Amino acid sequence: MEERVRFALEKLLNIAHADTGQARRVANFLLAWWNADALGGFDIPDLFAVDRDVSEDMVTVFTYLAREEDAFYPTEYRGEMESIIHRWRPQTDG
Length: 94
Fold this sequence. Notes:
The structure is a single chain. 64% of the residues lie in helices and 0% in strands. Helix 1 (3-16) crosses helix 2 (21-39), helix 1 (3-16) crosses helix 3 and helix 2 packs across helix 4. With 94 residues, it is an all-alpha fold. The chain starts with a helix and ends in a 6-residue tail after the last helix. The protein has helices spanning 3-16, 21-39, 52-67, 78-88. It is globular, with a radius of gyration of 12 Å. The chain has one domain (3-88). The chain is built from four helices and no strands.
């Protein structure tokens, strides 16, 4: 993963731990990537409801994923993703 993509992802992960509407939208984006069937999807209009820097980080991650030939899930962030799942989707197993 390129450094700029890693930086964008880490910023998004940090935001998703907060308790704000923006954090919820970022969490939805990350969780849709991790497992949309179990954790829910991401509504594209939510891009309009986050700060421009945040939406640009989402676009950076999305563009990176779109260019990968195979599905990619950074296992080094699994613990953080599980924490986000627990926070925003406590009714699921993840």
